[in-house]
Amino acid sequence: MEDAVEALARKGPSSAEIADWIRAQIRSNRFVPGQRLVEVDIIRQTGGSRFKVREAYQRLAADGLVEIEEFRGAKVRGASMDEVRQLYRARAALEGLCAADFTERASQADREHLQEIAAAMEECVENERPEEFGRLNAEWHQLLMRGAGNLVIEQVVKRLNTPVHHLLFGTFYRGERLREAARDHRAILAAIMANDPAEAERAMREHVENGLSFLRELDEAVHFHT
């Protein structure tokens, strides 16, 4: 008789795991806004069942990352710059609060871990490794939210981050934007280590708003050349 582990393995990935896989394809620009998600292809690539794939679509639709159309299936959802502006303004407020709360509440271990990630990101800037910088940046922001001790804000910000504007893929952490993000992180970290919650909040708000400014400029440049 097969044991429970083998039986579970035979069931294939969960709907949450399939959703995470699709999300990763979108973030890496392998699935792009407007692209239809062919159910049979997702089943083949993930090993999931038809039911689990459809359940994954529902999860992603709830996050605002895909659209489900009756009789036509699911497709990757895009976002207008006006929607991106609203999302970033909400993020600036919420992540600013988290930076202040982290300053006041985080453990010494969390503070040291934040410094370690920041140092690793600096190396990515020096050695021009934008993909790794992006991964570490996500980890850095998540640590700030967890260390702040506000699970509600962490969950809300995660949802705000999902309907990512198509301009962000593959271009966000390049050149001067990479260096600017690193400078912003240094300012946030300095305020945290100086135990200045008000300055940490201000610096975090500015950091998120700088990201929005970059996306606006990029969007305008794309439209100018098209």
From TrEMBL:
Signal peptide: none
Keyword annotations from UniProtKB, A to Z: DNA-binding, Transcription, Transcription regulation
Native species: Aurantiacibacter gilvus
A Pfam family recorded for this sequence: FCD
Keyword Transcription: yes
Superkingdom field: Bacteria
Segments forming domain HTH gntR-type: 12-79
Species lineage: Bacteria, Pseudomonadati, Pseudomonadota, Alphaproteobacteria, Sphingomonadales
Protein name according to UniProt: GntR family transcriptional regulator
